[in-house]
# Entry
Amino acid sequence: MIIDLRSDTVTKPTTGMLQAILNAQTGDDVYKEDPTANKLEQYLLELFGMDDALFFPTGSMANQAAIKLHTQPGEQLICDKWAHVYNYEGGGVSFNSGVSCKLIDGNNGMITAAQVEEAINPPDFYHSPLTSLVCIENTTNKGGGACYDMNEIKKIKAVCDTHGLGLHLDGARLMNAIVAKNEEPKQYGQLFDTVSICLSKGLGAPLGTVLLGKKELMSNAIRIRKILGGGMRQIGYMAAAGLYALEHQVDRLEEDHVKASDIASVLMQQSYVEKVEPTETNIVIFYLGQDLSEEKFIEGLLQKNIKISSMGQGKLRIVTHLDYTDEMHQHFLNVLNTHQ
Ligand SMILES: *Cc1c(COP(=O)(O)O)cnc(C)c1O
# Structure
């Protein structure tokens, strides 16, 4: 038994999902003739109450396309210093859009409306890059799965409106936030210009992210996707997996959250652990004390067929998911309790 807690991307399709893939009706999506891809896009745009939706192979490509839709070369976007768009998309912001990032020193990957306001370059001061976009992440990845307070998002939206800025949501784990906070998808649809929803993280599909947005922005999305190399053919097989996930594997995210919270509680009691970040969803971030190196700890777990990951700066990360069973959970908690 291998217990892989490095990420919620390691899951395999469930039996029901495999069945949905086998039964999928498909067509050539580059001609927009794939009925299942069209159905998935329609499902999500209705769920979020947005105008338009487009299926992308990856979350990075969907975020990068959104940034391209919102900006012109030379402009600047505002995001947290830990943002995925800045740290983990290969420098795509500058490569694809010729845009720079103004980084905010946020709290667990979350920024405030006041910080956004302060980070905006005055538009008539032509020496500075023109600020045109704000990107936020919910839940935050490097911030340990933290969820935004809806009131703060509303305030950020108000700042964006006042200053004519676009607002993009990197919602790789948005469903985790919606489940944890008992929110409605439409609350997000009303506030953001574009939203990316990942199907291959907690939702458990093999691949895919859907970009949702306002009509005027999204009219160019299919061209940008083509330019980035993301025009795909019989993608209905994967869209079927995504639809299945949305219909059957959203409510169960709560189970992942409970398990992550159990793990955080057990870690907090261990003498070898220095600090555990607040655990709101399916990500646990913690730090070891001085006497135990990260490499040694990770290696020790690996000997027991348990995989976790390091995020640098002393951060260790555990992510719970669909394929992390109750049996694995009991075993892992025992291992943590008996680790020297
Ligand atoms: C995983 C993730 C993405 C998208 O990553 P891909 O691997 O390109 O699908 C984007 N944002 C966040 C916060 C993520 O965790």
Residues 58-60, 63, 84, 137, 141, 170, 172, 198, 201, 209 surround pyridoxal-5'-phosphate (CB under 6 Å). Residues 9-248 form a domain with the Aspartate Aminotransferase; domain 2 fold (CATH 3.40.640.10).
